[in-house]
Amino acid sequence: MIEDLVAARMQMALSLGWHIVVACLGVGFPALVLLAEWRGIRTGDRGWTLLARRWAKALAVVFAVGAVSGTILSFEMGLLWPGLMGTYGEVIGLPFAIEGIAFFIEAIFLGIYLFAWGRLPPRAHLLSGIPIVLAGLASAFFVVTANAWMQQPEGFRLVDGRVVDVSPWEAMFNRATPHQTVHMLLAALMVTGFLVASVYAVAILRGKGDAYHRRAFALAFSLGAVAAPAQVAVGDWAAHSVAEHQPVKLAAMEALFRTEQGAALRLGGIVVDDELRYAVEIPNALSLLAYWDPDATVAGLEEVPPDLRPPVGIVHWAFDIMVAVGLALLALSAWFAVVAWRRRRLPDSSWFYRAAVVAGPAAVVALEAGWVVTEVGRQPWIVYGQMLTADAVNPMSGLRYGFYALLPVYVLLTVALIYVLRRLARAPFDDGAARRVSDYRVVPDGEDPR
Question: TM spans, by residue (predicted)?
Fold first, then answer.
């Protein structure tokens, strides 16, 4: 029998891990759609317009499924963690309220955008999509501020176990908010860009190297490639913040059990009896990366009792996977950029497109690994240094049955999402003429390209 606390954490992990991928597409996909439509308006090329229309249909499907998984998460916050919401609800309620407003704005303008194809002038229709992009970014931003507060809680005082002197704005814009929100938004762009590009990379490898597939690949991959170097810089920023404000999490990320001066950076390895074995060590590198000083002292897990330490093996490997995938995507982006700059075209190498196929799933893996580091690395605290996860869980028995019931729901959502997207991908072009892409004609700027 799964203990109820473990079941609650597993259910939250399942819901969040599933939703975050769809949420990333909800943030990045609208930008791709509008960029394709803008190119169609600017050039008069109906190929860009058809690409935008097809992507808009996929966006509608992703948004609908994301609304379902997001609703599940909102209920779980209260049902699984009443201790958290009952004590700190007035502190973190503001970002959730604003996120709800952003969600409704996104839904309203997505409906307008989809319905208005061919009913509004092209430029007016393009402008109607801008609120979708802005609302998607705002929605992600405000949700992440609440999570950032759980990492570095501010904006209140505790007196006899009760919250007083609440400042919701100070809580929302805590010290973790800047780097964590930027890190998440860049991750959303990377996941969207590389995941969409991987679909077209498969098509190109199968011989569909026409203008439609190559431009779709180029646009999507460019989005991920632009975000990749910025993400590396922001990741370094976030690591410095963790070193300063969450030293236990940093020690778990690096599997550092004993406090060291001039600490080495350890890659890989296996945790055995409070010791990391078989790791590759780079002398003084951890001190240098964490504090810009190769001789700086880095606190180890020995500084806190064993019951206040996160599960080191999981956090360490998740961090290594996230960093390794991020650097690999950066290298692939550099390959793409160099060829585009020197030759003004896409790479010809089949190995590049094979790597691009892997880049989509790899970006998702890096995303999930990053959230494992963020959430599991904070354990056993649900609010860092203030409330233990065990004190926040619903005290009623039987929580494991909710986890069992939710599993088939996410299986069905996954199957339905993949099925519908595949049907959309295989559907003939909806331009009313069933033309080949190579037959697209250039139309005058402002004319309806249908």
Answer: 16-38, 58-80, 92-115, 127-150, 182-204, 216-234, 314-339, 351-373, 401-421
